[in-house]
Structures are given as C-alpha cells and as structure tokens.
Amino acid sequence: MWFSVFLGIIFILEISAGIAAYVMQDGLRDVLEGRMRTMMSQYSTDSQVAETFDFIQQRLQCCGLESLTDWEGVTVEDEEPDYTQLPSSCCAQYGTGNQTGSCKLLYGNGCLARVEFILSESTVMLASAAFTLALLQLLGVVFACSLGRSIRYQKTWRERRRWELRERLVNSYTPIGQTDPKTTYPIIFMSGSKEADC
Length: 198
Description:
Mean pLDDT: 78
Helix content: 55-70%
Low-confidence stretches: none
Radius of gyration: 41 Å
Distance between the termini: 69 Å
Protein name: Tetraspanin
Pfam families: Tetraspanin
Strand order of the largest sheet: 1-2
Order of helices and strands: HHHEEH
CATH topology of the domain at 2-117: Cd81 Antigen, Extracellular Domain, Chain: A
Keywords: Membrane, Signal, Transmembrane, Transmembrane helix
Structural class: mainly alpha
Shape: rod-shaped
Oligomer: single chain
Subcellular location: Membrane
InterPro entries: Tetraspanin/Peripherin, Tetraspanin_EC2_sf
Largest sheet: 2 strands, antiparallel
C-alpha cells in the first residue's frame, strides 16, 4: 500500500517537472541573456566567470551574445580605455598556429542562440525522459496495487481455509461417553515406571 502511495507521489512530481520544463522553455532566452550579460560584465574581475565564458566561446565557436560587437564597452583587463579588446577565446584561427600569435580569424556568431538551442534541446529531452519515467512508474503503481490485492486475497483464502478446518475438527469431535459403544474401544493406560509381570 505505502509503496504504491510513494510511487504515486513520485509520479506526480515527475509529471510536474515535465510540464514545468515545457512551460519554462518560453522564458529561457530572457533568463539566458540576462545571465550571460552579467557574466560578460564580470569577465575581467572574476576569473571563474572568465574561464566559464571562454569555455563556452571556444566549445561553441562563438563570440559575445549576438555577435563579437557585444564586447564593446566591456572592460577586459590590461586594456586601454577607448580600445575594445576581445577575449582570446573569440579567436578562431591564429596567424602563427598557436595562441600566442595575432588572431587571423574571429568567430562571428553570437553564443546566445547556440546556448539557447542546446538548453532547449536538453529541456525537450529531459521533459521526454520525465514523461517516460512517469509512465513506467504509473505501470509500477498499477502492478503494486495488483500485487497487494493478490496477496490480500491469498491471505484471506488461507485464513478462511484454516477456519473451515478448525470448525470441521471442532464440530466432528464427540466425547467418549457419547459415542457408539460398538465403534469405541477402551483405552488402557499402563505406567512405564513399574515393570509389569508377564
């Protein structure tokens, strides 16, 4: 009983998670844009933010939010006030073949659309997985209830059978004085402590 109740609660939570993933998918772009703009503003002051943003730009082969012009006005350490310096992670190809040379080719696409695509695809996959698991757990609830009902039926049947056997034994018993003398034989009791003389 409790097993099916817990499975039912988990089922409801998984359905809720799946619905929330689909509903919140619409506001994903606004949340991402706000968070990524905050990360860009902290790029020069927080090394973990810089590493994270560099990782995103290198892996997704992108630069900035919408384009590389998003880095204008963002302070990158060791830069002159009126000069926009792009992070090294925006560079697609270096002139000398390593990252110490000058950048020959920059990533032109922004990261926001790519991150949004990855997260929206992940959201669809997670929601689909949640619905699939919820369906499997619904089957688990049905089977658990069926198993519980079967166990209760077997237990009731055994108890009924015991009761019938007990009633049959009690009702078939008759004291020795009330039995038919032709079929009743006397019982002779001999003590085993004394040896009988034969």
